[in-house]
Amino acid sequence: MLKKNKVQAEGAEVLEATESKALKKRTKKSTASVGLILFLLDKLTDSIYSAFCNGFFGKIFTSYSKEQAAFENGFLRNHFISAKFKAVFWKIRLRISKMFETSWFLCKTKNTARSWLGVPLKSYGKATFFFGVYTVLVYLIRLILPNLTEADLSSLITGVVLCVISLPMFLSKESLARALDSGVITNMLCSEFLGYRKESFEITLKASRTKSNILIFLGMLLGMLTLFVHPLLLVLAILLLMALLIVLNTPEIGVLLAIFFLPFLSFFAVPSTILGMIVLITAISYFVKLIRGKRLLRMELLDLAVLLFFALIFFSGAITVSEQKGWEEVLLSCCLMFGYFLTVNLIRTSQWLKRCTLALISSGTIVAMLGILQYFFAAVSVDAWVDRQYFSEISNRAVSLFENPNVLASYLVLVLPFVLLAFLRSPRGKGKTLYLISLLSVLSCIVLTWSRGAWLAVIASVLVFGFIYSKKTLRTIFFFILSLPMLSVILPSSFKHRFMSIGNLADSSTAYRYYTWKGSWNIVEEYFWSGIGYGPTAYQTIYPQYAYAGIEAAEHSHSLFLQILIGLGIGGLLVFFCILFLASQMNFEYLKNGKNQASRFFIIATMCSVLGALVMGCFDYIWYNYRIFFLFWVVLGLACACIRISRAEEQRHAFVETNETNYATKDLGF
After folding, report:
1. What would the pLDDT profile of 52-90 be if each residue is shown by its tens digit?
2. Residue range 97-120, pLDDT digits in tens
3. For a FRET experiment, which of 186, 219, 294, 564 has its CA 20 to 30 Å from that of 452?
4. How far is CA 407 from the centre of its chain?
5. Cα separations (Å) of 512 from 44, 457, 557, 561, 648?
6. How far is it, in rounded angstroms, from Cα 401 to Cα 403?
7. Do residues 135 and 159 lie in contact, with contact meaning Cβ atoms separated by under 8 Å?
8. What phi, psi does 385 have (nearest 5°)?
9. Which pTM was predicted?
10. Contact, 455 vs 428, CB < 8 A?
C-alpha cells in the first residue's frame, strides 16, 4: 500500500513537472512571438521613417530652404530690391526714425509715464478708496431716492471690494513701479508673462502732492460716475486703457493678449470686432516701432503666399454679391489675418514663444473646464445640432464660452497638441500634474461636444503627433488594436452609436451636410474661376438659388475647402494649398535637419494643430467663427516664428564657435 502511494506521489510530481515545463515552453513561445511582432513593428517603423526622410516625399518636403534661396536671389532681388533702392529706403527710414525719436509728443509721453510710475502706491490706494466709498454712497442714494434707477447689489459689492483692496496700498511706502516689481503676483505677471525687464521698474520714489490730489479727485469722479455707469464697467474701462498703453509700448503683448483673451471676448456683444481692434492696435504699434527701427520685417516665400491669399480675400470684396455687408466681412477677415504677420515678426525669442504657448494652454484649459461644468450643470437646447430621434440619448452638448459646440470643438482641437506636448515634455512634479489635468480637461470637453468631426480630427492629429514624436508609436497602436474588444465593452453605447453614425445618411444632420455640399457644388460649377466673393453673407445671398428643397437656410457650405473654392474660386483654393505645402516643407525640413530638440517638438505640435483643424474643416466651415480664423493663422505663424528663432540661435552658436576656434588657432601660433 505504501509502495502504491509512493508511486502515485512520484507520478504526480512527474506530471506536475511536465506541465510546468510545458507552461514555460508556451510562455517562452508567446513571449518570443510577441517579441517577434514588436521587432517586426520596429522594422516597419524604421522603413517608413527612412522612406519619408530619404525617398521622394523627403526630397519634395525638405527643400524649402532651396526655394527660399532661389526666391531671395532671383528676379525680385535683382530687379526690384537693388542696392540703390536699399540705400534710398534706409535714408528715408532713418529720417523718419529721427523725427519720431526727437518728437515732443514721444518724449513727453515717456517722461509722463515714468513720472506716474514713481508716484507712491498709497496715492493710488487713496484713489481706489474714494472710488469705492463714492460707489457705496451712490448705492445708498439709489435706495433713498426711488426716482433714480433701481439699486444694484453688485454695485455695493464692487464698492466694498475696492475699499478693501485699497487698505494694503495705504501701508506701502514704495512707488508704483517698485511695488509691481516686489509683489509676487505682479512680478510674475509683469516679468514672466508680459516680459518686462527688471530695470523697467527701477524708478525712484517721487512724492507729489499735486499728483496725489489729482488721483483723489479722479477716484471721486469715478465714484460719482457710477450714478450713470455700472462700476464694473468703469473698472473694465480702466483696465482696457492700461492694456492699450502697454500694447502701444510693447506690441508683442498685443499678440499675447489676443491669444489669451480670445475665448473670453464672448462676454461682449461683438467679440470678433473687439478682437479685430486688438489686432489693429497691435499692428499700429508694430508699424510705429518698425519705422523707428526698433522692430524688424522679414518676408519669406511662405509669407508671400500668405500675403497673396490676403490680397485675394481683400479684392474679393469688389466682386462679392453681398455688397456693403460683404465688405465689412472682408475687412474684418483681413484685419484678423494680420495676426499671422504680427506673430511671425514680433515673436522673435524663445521666451516670447513660451509665453504665447502658455497663454494658449491656460486659456484653453479654462474654456474646457467651463465647458465640462456647463455640460453637467447647465442644460443647453441641442435640437438645432442633434437629430433627437436618431440620438435620443444625447440631451446636452458642451458649448462653454462659444455659442456652438462645433466652434468650441474647433478651438480645442487647435489647442490640444500644445497641451499634449506640454504634458509629455514637462518634468515630474506639480507641473506634470497640472498639465495632466489640462490634457484630461481638454480631451473630456472635446468628447462632450459630441462633434464627430472633432473626434476624427483628434484621432488624426494624435496619431501623426505620436508617429513623429516617437518611433515606438506603432507598438502602442498595436496594443490599442488588441484592446479594442475591451474598449467596446467599457465605452457607453451612446458614444459608440454617435461615432459609428459617421457617414450614415439616416442621421438628419449628416444628410443635411451631404445635400448642402451638393447644393454648394452647383455654385462651384458656375463660379469655378472667379468665385462669388469672400464671406458668409455672399454665400447666404446666392446659395438658395442652387439649394435642394428644404435646405435653403444653410449659412455656409459645412466645408472649409469648399467654402474657399466658392468664395475665391479655384485660384484662391490653389493659393491656400500652396500655403499649406510651403508650411509643410518648412516644418518637415526643420524636423529633419534642426538641432534644437525643444523647437522640433514644438513644430510637431503646431503641425498637428493645423492638421486637426484641416481634418475638421473637411466636415465643417471652421472659419465661420472669426476667432477660430484668427487662431488658425496665429498657430501657423507660431510654427514659422519658432523655426526662424531656432535658425537664428543656431547661426549665433555657429558664429561663436567659429570665433572661438579662430582665437584658439591664433593662440597656438598657426
Report:
1. 667 667 778 788 888 888 877 775 556 555 566 666 666
2. 666 656 666 666 777 777 777 888
3. 564
4. 14
5. 42, 20, 10, 18, 50
6. 7
7. yes
8. -115, -10
9. 0.88
10. no
